[in-house]
Amino acid sequence: MKKTVLSLLFLLISHIDFAQSYKILNSASGTLESFESLVDGDELFGYVELRKLDLEDKLTEKYKYILLDKNMNTINTGEFSLDLLKKKCMNNNYQVVYNKGHVIFCFEELFYDRGYLPIRGSYQILNVEQNKMVSSGYFGSNPTKKVSIPALNMLYKKSYIGSLSDSGFLVQTTSIDPEVGLKEYYYGMDFMGKQTWQQTYKKAEAKHDYETTFFDKDKNNIVLLLTKNRNSKKVSDHMQILDTKTGKEVAFVDLSNDKYTLRFSNVELKEGKLYILGRFFEKEKRDRVEADESLGLYRRIIDIKTGKILNEDFLAYDKFKNPNINENGRIKKEGYLSFQKININPDGSYFIIAETYIEKSRGANVFNELYTFTLDKDFKPLEMKGFDAARTRGSKYSFSQELPNNVGKAYFFYDKNEEKEFELNIMKYMYASKKISVDKMNLNNEKSNIRVSKAKPGYVGITERFKNPKKDEKTLEIRLEKLNYERE
Amino acid sequence: MNLQKLLLLFCFLQTYFFDAFSQSYTPIDTANIVENKLFLLGFKARHKLNIDDIKKQYSGETKKKIQKIYEDQFESFSKDIIKGEIYFEKKNQEYLNKLLQEVITSNPDLKKLKININFSRATSPNAYSVGDGTLVVHMDLLNNLNTEGELVSVICHEIAHYKLDHRNKSIQKHVEKLTSKETKKEEREINALRYNKQKRAEKFIQNVVYSRKSKSRIHEIEADSLGFIFFKNTKFSAIHVTNSLKVLEESDIEKDSLVESDYKKFFTTKNQKFFSEWMEMEDFSKYHYSKEHLFKWSVDSLKTHPDCAERIETLLLNKTQSKPEYAIDVTSFKELKFKSKYESVYNYYFFKEYGYSLYETLKLLKIKKTDPFLTKMIYENLAVLSKAKKEMKLNTYIPSINPKEQTNSQQRFFNFINNLTLKELENLTNDYRNLNN
Question: Which of A47, A150, B25, B138 could form a disulfide with A68 if both were Cys (CB 3.0 to 4.6 A apart)?
Fold first, then answer.
């Protein structure tokens, strides 16, 4: 019924009822390296617990993985070994990605010398159904043991992994070529670890360079944000769209606008179109924005195949028909609007969560009220609703969760109650009725403290830690609770 | 009165009795403070004697560890008594004592032992010897046993455990092993290892566990043998021992189930219509679950009991001569068997397993067709579940779906509860409340 992350340790304890050296038990269960969700597109496949078991010899580490389904039931377990390049090294798992029945574990090898120096990156690919490692390798070229640690450290750059449609994984990596220098590139890797294509980062003109960030992807396309810099100062923003099968550039889009300076907060690939959503500002030199004063929300729709702009809409604040919002998005006595989440609903309309904030000294913002905005599919405002919220240091909004069968979405935010204690607010927006409702959950009561995390659609993970449990009573309960929403 | 009329009268009385009984079943009350206190006093006195023996027999770390185990077990069992988990109801108690007396009378050596026997509310088909002469039979066991003889064979088995002092030997031997020089040496060596520490530590624990489980299986065989000797001395036929072993082996296989039409029947109420969406099942087809142990240990080595066939063979039961049919008090046995079904439903509720309580209630009501007690239990469970859902604590009482451990029927039920919205659950609760008023 209830699961625990430390499944190995507790299982061992349950076998040994009597007093036993705790050190032995700990040694037998290894140390927890990571516990990650395995997400398949938008759907949660399950979880994986990774434990470091042993040093088999001075240059070999042993690991154990435990695969769990979406309800945290154990599917399977297995072990694998990782090499170390030198003594005083250790591996550190920094990323786990799931795609179509495969899990890739990414490791960074660290050398300890008055601090940890990263020197090498490696991966292991697990086929879940067969429950065996089908591929392993190194990111970049595999350096030899003859290379010194400082040199290795200098040559090493971390690689980042994403899923790549149905075919494998996308690797974003950097290497230092002795002749060429720094080489940044992505490549597609199939599930057997074979490189299927390679694409170097786009090169900018002289005295300029691009800073690249992954943005979004779907089955056919990868969207990257390329920020052009000159002497480390931003010049412009661009979107680069790549084909997932070949890595070739499909479109390269300038994100700037002649009339306004734009700042996007949401980018979404949907049915062959790229939706870029955010705020627009007075046109600034080099599109630099330092003020909070925006002019409204904007939407740009781009055709993926051609890179052409299909639609561009600018929704000024006066169009919201709310006298409390001034032309710069500020609400009197509350502060500027910060748009935390702009969501595109299945019918093409929009649901937006925003908070007002005041910037205090030393960059710490104080957040006040919470608002929702609904816009129609033509980006015209329909409704604005306010929710009485307390003043908090930091944003209240935390995360969102789909409801099953596409009936709606739940948005989670933390707020203080009358007793000044934090409580979780679960705001549900139902697509059919367009109704909004909010449930509250106390996070701290006489008996326990509660923490909440994302789980499978329609559910939320709850970790309840009991205060002052009596002997034989549970100290911790982890469960999956279904969100309360009505049938429409 | 001739035989035919007698038979007719008997059938009438049986039917009337059970019909009258099922009209308004009242769960057996275990909140009798006097009985609980008396039982606890006796248990405490025996526990003290046990601790005194330990202090004389052992010293140092061994004594400390053994004492702690007994103290913990005493505390745990005492809590169970105080919570009302032990039955003291007069009629059932008299019946159990009758069965116990039959065994003791047939085995005069047992007269020297002070043995008490009680039913408990625990919701699993089991029985055990506490180790101080107290035998506990779970009421749920009656749902699986078919004859009085089978119940007596279980009692004989537990008496054998007590006679052979298995519990005390098991604890003491295990602690002696753990505090031995060899074990300490092994622990020190493991802690000092730089390489393959986990492997060796796991092996060490595996050996400890395998050894314990193996001892447990040996104890079960010994209790089977001695228990069978006790049983053979009674007037019951050996077939009851064979049957009890077979019944217990299959006790974790669910015998009844609920199908979709049952849900439609039970949950179409005055203010709540049935939705087909309630029967939607979560999809787990993409998962390929391994049957292996988490540590890849041998599942057979982890069993606490040998397989049924092996136990029957060991007792050479197949070659034992049968005896004429015998019973001590069939009426009481049948009455108890009848009550146990209702008690099981209530006992899940007692232990706050409201999901399982509701599930078992529905399965029983499917057979009974109408029953005010069961209808009331539906309401009671729905009320708690409704409140829990509102507070987002439903999963405390309704397990997550686990295809490895749950039957299809159980998964269907848990899916059904999770598919109800809060309003639907509240409507059903209110309608069932009104049915009971």
Answer: A47
For tokens 């008055």, name the residue: A114
For residue B13, is pLDDT > 50? no
Interface of B with A in 189-248 (CB under 8 A): 190-191, 194-199, 201-202, 204-205, 208-209
Could you report the per-residue pLDDT of B84-138, keeping only the tens digit for each?
Answer: 999 999 999 999 999 999 999 999 999 999 999 999 999 999 999 999 999 999 9
Task: Flag residues of chain A having pLDDT under 50.
Answer: 1-7, 16-20
Two structure tokens written together for A419: 């007793």
As a whole number of angstroms, the distance between CA B214 and CA B211 comes to 5
| Nearest Cβ partner for B294 among A1, A8, A482 | A8
Q: What is the pLDDT of residue B17?
A: 42
Mean pLDDT, chain B, as a whole number? Answer: 91
Q: Tens digit of pLDDT for each residue in B286-307?
A: 999 998 888 889 988 988 999 9
Model confidence at B318, pLDDT cuts 50, 70, 90, reads low
Within 8 A of A46 by CB-CB distance, chain B residues are 287
Q: How many angstroms separate the CA of residue B198 from the nearest CA in chain A?
A: 5
Q: What CA–CA distances, in Å, run from A74 to A67, B141, B290, B298, B405?
A: 6, 30, 8, 17, 11
Q: In a mutagenesis test of the A interface, which of B177, B400, B417 is the best target, namely the one with the most A β-carbons within 10 Å?
A: B400
Q: What is the ipTM of this complex?
A: 0.87
- 3-state SS, chain B, equals CCHHHHHHHHHHHHHHHHHHHHHCCCCCCCCCHHHHHHHHHHHHHHHHHHHHHHHHHCCHHHHHHHHHHHHHHHHHHHHHHHHCCECCCHHHHHHHHHHHHHHHHHCHHHHHCCCEEEEECCCCCCEEECCCCEEEEEHHHHHCCCCHHHHHHHHHHHHHHHHCCHHHHHHHHHHHHHCCHHHHHHHHHHHHCCCCHHHHHHHHHHHHHHHHHHHHHHHHHHHHHHHHHHHHCCCCCCHHHHHHHHHHHCCCCCCCCCCHHHHHHHCCECCECCCHHHHCCCCCCCCCCCCCCCCCCCCHHHCCCCCHHHHHHHCCHHHCCCCCCCCCCHHHHHHHHHHHHHHHHHHHHHCCCHHHHHHHHHHHHHHHCCCHHHHHHHHHHHHHHHHHHHCCCHHHHCCCCCCCCCCHHHHHHHHHHHHCCHHHHHHHHHHHHHHHC
Q: Does B389 touch chain A (CB under 8 A)?
A: yes
For residue A110, give how far its alpha carbon lies from the nearest alpha carbon of chain B (Å). Answer: 19
Running DSSP on this structure, what letter comes out for residue A325? B
Q: Which helix (H) or strand (E) holds A149?
A: helix A149-155
Q: Which of A385, A400, A380 is nearest to A453 (CA)?
A: A400
Average pLDDT (B300-316) is: 87
Residues of chain B with C-beta less than 8 angstroms from the C-beta of A479: 395-396, 400
Of residues B32 and B360, the one with the higher pLDDT is B360
DSSP 3-state of A154: helix
Which amino acid does the sequence have at B139?
M
Q: What is the pLDDT of residue A56?
A: 94
Q: How confident is the model at residue B20 (pLDDT cuts 50, 70, 90)?
A: very low
User: Which residue is closest to B283 within chain A, CA to CA?
Assistant: A70
Contacting residues of A for B390, CB less than 8 Å apart: 484
